[in-house]
């Protein structure tokens, strides 16, 4: 168990790709951090630098009180779960789990106790004698987890460990991993490009975009106060609606193709801005009311738990979330965008204003 | 599998006929002929032959030159097989570190495979030549009075080195592709689990190379027993003198130089049995022990 400090870490691959521009992140003892972002944003790169599988171009990484830059992966007191599980194909499940302990010179009896305990925790006792090739994907995933927890490391690293599982198993394992991590209290860094995994598992999320950390915060902070348009549209499904707008000071906000919206706070910038609103914050009325705008219903998407109303405003697709009780009659409804639910972003930098 | 229907049930056999006849004419018929003549004593001019039962075999194993050749063959094969595999593995592991992902280099290294075999023996002879060979010269400079073709040991040394040299590229390519077939993440997981790279090699890499290794082991034993004929012939320039030869070469010497067809046939029957054993060994024991993923 340890605090992890990533201090101005940068990664340039030998071919010149800058996969990570200088980034800092401080992780508390026992915290579960999720690194999330689109493909190629540098999540794995950062994780692999922490693991010691990639050199650190600049900056320092410390685990516990130790700066680990110069340490080999085996000396960093970490355990990693890989996307394809990376089990040793020639070893039984038992030996897969025992391997790391054996190499650290642990006595046989202690190894056995540790393996049995981990196997019990993960319900893989009956597979201990099998080879990985004789296991299903979900069982292999458990063995990979077992190999990590049996070592009792200071830090768990996960690189998309659930992406090879079907949706049902993924949900189940997500909950199980989180439960296990709480029980063991081991600091964890979890890489995924699945924003649902990020939202549901994380104590804090770090959103990465093209080699930069865009925002670090709790799931609620990330969701309710996204620091940039990128974060706003990446986190949340369906994504936040983004519309063009103009702010000319003194509460005068014009949204393109929609008209005037009153905002209660004064903004520091004037000029072009982008206005975001989450689908569930859009209020839909059957009849015209003050501060509503007529919109045409393109189609309704049934979700079971609610429906999504799809429309276009100007040329921009726009989605509103409706509760099940909410009945829609006719082609045209009236939308109200509550001022408190609006997210405003600088049109040129994309940062929140 | 798609099953095709032929009008006549004999038609498929007709299609197989060219291939089958080649196998029969060039493999089975000579083999049968060798087995037959191993039981006969033929007069040197080939006019008559007498059935002598197992006499040829009895005669063969009781002759000291045969026993000496058999002993040399074993030593030769063990050394050639071991070093061909070991050197190739060492090179492949070194190359694998550099090569991960860099396919240009890989292609460059593949060329070695294409160039080395046909040229190896002739180049080898030039290198080891007592008068002009740089390797012989090097040994002589070190104080080793190296005499190719005159000294038994020196000749054997050249045979062995050239045989190894010719086989290393083949083994290298197989080992390298075997190494590249080991998932990178497995190596990385091992790097997290085990600090010592030597230990990682013996506990992870080496066992995972076992399928390749066993396959190459058989290939190399076969090579050192049989396919080194050409190298030995080039090294000896067809004049063995008192230099050591392998069993296959002795079959040729006794049969064609000594005109002892019966004895030579008996020797090749023994070699056939050896091949048979190797093949059975390959299919049975090995395939069972190797874990494919
Ligand atoms: N070994 C390498 N050499 C050169 N460039 C690399 C190397 N590994 C990754 N990159 C580049 O670095 C960037 C970040 O890669 P990284 O693997 O960290 O992405 P990621 O966020 O994990 O993506 P994914 O979700 O697809 O796994 C990418 O542009 C990638 O092409
Ligand atoms: Mg990745």
Description:
- The complex is a heterodimer of chains A (353) and B (293).
- With 353 residues, chain A is an alpha+beta fold.
- Chain A is built from eight helices and 21 strands.
- Chain A is elongated, with a radius of gyration of 24 Å.
- The relative contact order of chain A is 0.12.
- Chain B has 293 residues and is mainly alpha-helical.
- Chain B has a single domain (57-292), classed as Orthogonal Bundle (MetI-like fold).
- Chain B contains twelve helices and two strands.
- In chain B, strand 1 (40-42) and strand 2 (49-51) form a beta hairpin.
- In chain B, helix 6 (152-180) packs antiparallel against helix 9 and helix 6 (152-180) packs antiparallel against helix 10.
- The interface between A and B is medium-sized, with 25 and 20 residues.
- The complex binds adenosine-5'-triphosphate and magnesium ion (MG).
What's the CATH class of chain B, please? Mainly Alpha
CATH fold-level label of chain B: MetI-like fold
Q: Quick one: overall form of chain A?
A: elongated
Distance between the termini of chain B: 24 Å
Taking all Cα atoms into account, the compactness measure Rg of chain A is 24 Å
Spell out which ligands are present.
adenosine-5'-triphosphate, magnesium ion
Low-confidence region ranges of chain B: none
Number of helices of chain B: 12
Task: Name the strands of the widest sheet of chain B in spatial order.
Answer: 1-2
Mean pLDDT of chain A: 91
Biggest sheet character of chain A:
6 strands, mixed
Tell me the number of strands of chain A: 21
The mean pLDDT of chain B is 83
Structural class of chain A: alpha+beta
Count of alpha/pi helices of chain A: 8
């Amino acid at each position: 168990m340890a605090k992890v400090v990533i201090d101005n870490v940068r990664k340039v691959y030998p071919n010149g790709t800058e996969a990570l521009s200088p980034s800092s992140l401080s992780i508390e003892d026992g915290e579960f951090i999720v690194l999330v972002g689109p493909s190629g944003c540098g999540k794995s790169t950062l994780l692999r630098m922490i693991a010691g599988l990639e050199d650190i171009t600049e900056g320092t990484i410390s685990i516990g009180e130790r700066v680990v830059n110069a340490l080999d992966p085996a000396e960093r007191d970490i355990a990693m779960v890989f996307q394809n599980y990376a089990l040793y194909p020639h070893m039984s499940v038992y030996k897969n789990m025992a391997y790391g302990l054996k190499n650290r010179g642990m006595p046989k009896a202690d190894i056995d106790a540790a393996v049995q305990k981990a196997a019990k925790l993960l319900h893989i006792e009956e597979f201990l004698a099998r080879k990985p090739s004789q296991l299903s994907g979900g069982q292999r995933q458990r063995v990979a987890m077992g190999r990590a927890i049996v070592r009792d490391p200071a830090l768990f690293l996960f690189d998309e460990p659930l992406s090879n599982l079907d949706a049902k198993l993924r949900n189940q394992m997500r909950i199980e991993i989180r439960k296990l991590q709480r029980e063991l209290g081991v600091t964890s860094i979890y890489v995924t490009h699945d924003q649902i995994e990020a939202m549901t598992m994380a104590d804090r999320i770090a959103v990465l975009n093209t080699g930069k950390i865009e925002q670090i915060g709790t799931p609620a902070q990330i969701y309710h106060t996204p620091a940039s348009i990128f974060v706003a549209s990446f986190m949340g499904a369906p994504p936040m609606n983004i519309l063009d707008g103009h702010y000319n000071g003194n509460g005068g906000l014009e949204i393109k193709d929609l008209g005037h919206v009153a905002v209660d706070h004064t903004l520091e910038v004037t000029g072009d801005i982008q206005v975001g609103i989450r689908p569930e914050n859009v209020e839909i009325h059957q009849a015209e009311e003050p501060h509503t705008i007529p919109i045409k219903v393109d189609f309704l998407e049934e979700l079971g738990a609610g429906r999504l109303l799809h429309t276009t405003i100007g040329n921009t697709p726009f989605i509103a979330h409706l509760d099940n009780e909410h009945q829609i009659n006719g082609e045209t409804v009236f939308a109200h965008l509550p001022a408190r639910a609006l997210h405003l972003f600088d049109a040129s930098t994309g940062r929140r204003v | 599998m798609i099953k095709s229907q032929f009008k006549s049930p004999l038609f498929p056999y007709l299609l197989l006929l060219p291939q089958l006849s080649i196998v029969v004419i060039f493999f089975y018929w000579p083999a049968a002929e060798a087995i037959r003549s191993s039981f006969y004593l033929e007069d040197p001019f080939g006019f008559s032959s007498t059935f002598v039962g197992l006499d040829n075999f009895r005669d063969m194993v009781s002759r000291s030159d045969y026993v000496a050749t058999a002993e040399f063959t074993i030593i030769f094969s063990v050394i050639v097989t071991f070093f061909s595999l070991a050197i190739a593995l060492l090179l492949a592991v070194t190359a694998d570190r550099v090569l991960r992902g860099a396919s240009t280099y890989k292609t460059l290294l593949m060329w070695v495979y294409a160039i080395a075999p046909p040229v190896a023996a002739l180049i080898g002879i030039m290198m080891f030549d007592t008068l002009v060979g740089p390797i012989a010269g090097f040994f002589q400079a070190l104080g080793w009075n190296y005499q190719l073709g005159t000294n038994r040991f020196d000749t054997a040394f050249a045979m062995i080195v050239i045989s190894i040299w010719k086989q290393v590229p083949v083994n290298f390519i197989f080992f390298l592709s075997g190494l590249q077939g080991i998932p990178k993440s497995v190596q990385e997981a091992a790097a997290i689990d085990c600090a010592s790279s030597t230990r990682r090699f013996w506990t992870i890499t080496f066992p995972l190379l076992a399928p390749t290794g066993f396959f190459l082991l058989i290939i190399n034993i076969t090579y050192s027993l049989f396919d080194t004929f050409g190298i030995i012939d080039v090294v000896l320039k067809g004049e063995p003198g008192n230099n050591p030869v392998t069993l296959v070469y002795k079959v040729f010497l006794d049969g064609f130089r000594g005109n002892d067809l019966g004895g030579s046939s008996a020797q090749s029957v023994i070699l056939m049995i050896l091949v048979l054993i190797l093949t059975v060994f390959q299919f049975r024991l090995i395939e069972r022990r190797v874990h494919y993923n």
